[in-house]
Amino acid sequence: MQLIPYEPFRHLENMRRELDRFFTGDLSTFKTGFGQNLGSLRVDVHETENEVVATCDIPGLEKKEDVNIDIDNNILTITGSINRANEVKEENLHRQERFVGRFQRSISLPSSVSSEGVTATYKNGVLEIRMPKTKPDTKKKIDVNFH
């Protein structure tokens, strides 16, 4: 039998993550039920040595004007809208689960990033945002003048 190290705060971390997900979601989910998180993007964020990368699924964007990306004080904000022409008359519609409307998501970034050199690519319904990290301030010794 393999022993697993005891991590007393593991359950608290899971609870924190669930609370973050709950409070950053769109309140319109109350109308549709907890199982469907419509209007809120699901975003993966990871970092490499030189950049922070955010990837999110946004199927249905038709043109680049449909999405806006802002970075302010290491907060990434993605807003936009998905517009679909009525493909079927409403009286013939039995179920509608694909999202239509405005969306917004703000995420705290794990490292300081520069707004210069940010690139965003949208392909096959996936938006990828690459943000270069800023160089940390180098340690500098300060001389004290004694009189």
TrEMBL record:
Residues 38-147 form the CS domain. CDD domains: ACD_sHsps-like (cd06464). Pfam families: HSP20 (PF00011). Residues 34-147 form the SHSP domain. Transmembrane segments: none annotated. Belongs to the small heat shock protein (HSP20) family. This is Hsp20 family protein.
